[in-house]
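Sequence and structure are no longer studied apart. As an example, we show below a sequence and the tokens encoding its fold:
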Amino acid sequence: MELKRIVLGVTGGVAAYKAAELTRLLVKSGIDVQVVCTRAALHFVGAATFQALTGHPVFTDLWDERVDNGMAHIDLSRGADAIVVAPASADFLAKLAQGRADDLLSTLCLARDCPLLVAPAMNRQMWENPATERNLAQLSLDQVNVLGPDSGEQACGETGFGRMLEPETLLEAIVARFQPKRLNGLKVLVTAGPTFEAIDAVRGITNSSSGKMGYAVARAALEAGAEVTLVSGPTCLSPPRAARLISVLSTQQMLAAVEQAADAADIFISVAAVSDYYVLNPSEQKIKKDAHILTLELAPNPDILANISSRQKPPFCVGFAAESENLEEYAELKRRRKHLPLIVANDVKDALGADDAQLILLDEAGRHVLEKADKLTQARRLIAHIAQLYNTHYQ
């Protein structure tokens, strides 16, 4: 299901300022957002801010005369794919658990016919209070999706659980809730980023891979319901929150991590741009610059994907082929040589470090072109294709 329209409820609390950024991110993602605030929320963020971000008037009053039939508590949620309350205060969670409807937002939540997601935000002692725990247990029974909270510094000066998730994390969780669960219950292993082969204490051999594609694939697999392990070389990216991250530096380290994790994996997606060679005798100290030519002796690194695909009972293996010429020819040769059910071909000149990519999927049925799009969109398309092949061959 594609998420097209949500009602964003904002309750009173310092974290209400984050709701403005969440609104911006939702709108940027192409989602139509209607904001409904409690009166307390307007003490923290003004209605004009949300109206400017969404292009829609903000509703607060149960008796708002801007709704012709006087049925704001029903009309505002009709046609919405979800109601998201962020931040959701302890008081508002109590209202939901008790089925109370004494203002516009709580009435909307009670009269809805769409999913309800809440992002709690409160002092750590309020979060740990038995009353809040009882309310959350009831909300879980009522199939309300609770997103977070996180642990960290709070406005009161204390540190602990109760801090609302950051807007980027919330966006990720909200969108994931509505993606098809094509890989539900499966374990997916993904490699991402470059590897780094030391020359000396500070220098090394690497490449320009940003890790964006691998991280997007990990996120798309999580959205599809999989349990994801992400083995990543050095990148500047934040990993998907729900993924198990294993950080490595060299190709040998990545191989060791992958071999261990592959035992439990149903699907292995090898996205990482690993270094093909390593330095035989790296210096433990920084090599001083002089006028002489520096000669490095290189040896080939192990082929991580081939090691896994050649197992007696390998997981479903997917490779990536980044080529600068003869793209499809070289990719198909690689697929056949490594006995892969699927390989993803991309032009190295356009793909490494970029935000967008065109991908060509090569499998036993032939070629499937994924027209240029952002990498998360491509990752979702790839996961859908992987799920189709996996279900055909393994179910």
Q: What stands out?
A: The mean pLDDT is 90. Residues 375-394 form the longest helix (20 residues). The longest strand covers residues 366-374. The radius of gyration is 25 Å.
